[in-house]
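Give me structure tokens for this 300-residue protein.
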Amino acid sequence: MNDMVIQLALSLMVFSSVFLTIYAIFRFPAQTAPPVHRRFAESVGEIHLTLFENKMISPITSFFVMIASRFSVESIRKRVWQDLNASGNHAGYTVEEYIAVCLMTSCGFGIISILIQMIFANSIVILFAPLLFLVGFYIPLWTLRDSANQRTNRIAKQLPYTLDLISLTMASGASFVEAVDTLIRDNPDEDLNQELQLALNEIKFGSTRANALRNLSDRIPLNTLQSVIAATNQADKLGSPLAAILQTQADMLRVQRSVRAEKLAASASLRILIPSMLILIAVVTLVFSPLLIRFIQGEI
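Here you go.
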């Protein structure tokens, strides 16, 4: 009887804390905005099909999207927005849709925790239910962050060569837009070229080049790219030759990369020093331990 009362009290406490937390988070609706990838795709008649367009599960997914639209934790919403942009967002997810994916994963882990509690019939297991809810919610966020970081690193490696090609094309008489368009046509699958395609689409739909490039730097959290775009916009204002500016920026990026490689090479020798010393001590101990044992036993 006492065990049942304790288990009921624990269940009520966990339920109350989870309910109050959810109520505080989902109390007010949040502002929504479609991603730039979806806006441009819809403007040219392309439709990205995701699980939210699947008619078989649309009653479930629409319910979670409705809940996600009231998810008012601004830090998580901003993180999802940044990582969706940096990862390319090829499926065209909105912030609400991806938060809905997190909520569905969280509910899946919650169901698993309930099943574990039913199988083991232990009141302690229910205390892990909120933890599993959180783990289920953050797994898609961690996956998205990893995808965004990998794509950002690929863009950082590609940037100097892209600047070289744009500079050479402009030096032959093409404008900036023509040079970028030529580069994209030659290799449309590169990550940086995809971002440049979005910038070109913005320009074609009436945005200025400065605003389109500024939006590009907002989508990709890369310091080198942001400095290149700032130099490009500054050259626009001052009337400086853009081809020379881009070539200078490409050379600077290569110098920064070589300096960074030299720093890593210098630090590698220090990092390997401690493992080398431990290996040396282990080898010396292994070689001389029989003699040491015989000396202690008085055989020498």
